[in-house]
Amino acid sequence: MALIEELIKDNWLKNKRVVKAVKKIKRADFLTEDSKGLEEINEALSIGFGQTISQPLVVAFMLELLDLKEKDKVLDIGSGSGWTSALLAEIVGKSGKVISLEIIQELKDFGEKNASKYTFVKKGIVQFFCSDGNYGYEKEAPFDKILVSASGSGIPDSWKNQLKTGGRIVAPVDSSIRLLTKKSETEFEEKEYPGFAFVPLLKK
Q1: Which of 35, 46, 54, 79 is catalytic?
Q2: Which three-class secondary structure string do you get for 151-204?
Q3: Where are the domains of the chain?
Q4: Active site (annotated) includes residue 79
């Protein structure tokens, strides 16, 4: 909990719903055996297959940018350990929905198993799919929010098209985090926050 208090003190965590979720959904429940005991370290940690569970500071920052509301429907791309999926589910609540995409089958299973330590999977608030996130998930579109946890070279049209008007995409592009807000079917407002590092977004 010391790390969470530090993130609050340094103003990375501000939104009450996000703070509550980060306190309730323990990062320790989403680590590999090799990383047990390292949950309080403010660094990305390996979960195998060249992928990581993101740095807590970065997760806090991206969740704050998403401006999540209760009942939101969220697409979580690159769900990995399942930690972001569980955090999203806690924030959107029982009337919300999270669709989690992971391209590596073993990590999809790992993330789903981890998130199942809470009640989100059983209640159907979170659903995990082994799928290429570059194409979004048309079957469940449109989404209120889209969160991406791996870095690509741009924001694909598929994500923009599957976002509701008024919705937000928070995604890494190269070494920046981008926030896209959909103003109309064709108009987006974009903000860039440089200085971050992510694993690359894989493609099939």
Answers
A1: 54
A2: EECCCCHHHHHCEEEEEEEEEEECCEEEEEEECCCCCEEEEEEECCCCCECCCC
A3: 2-194
A4: no
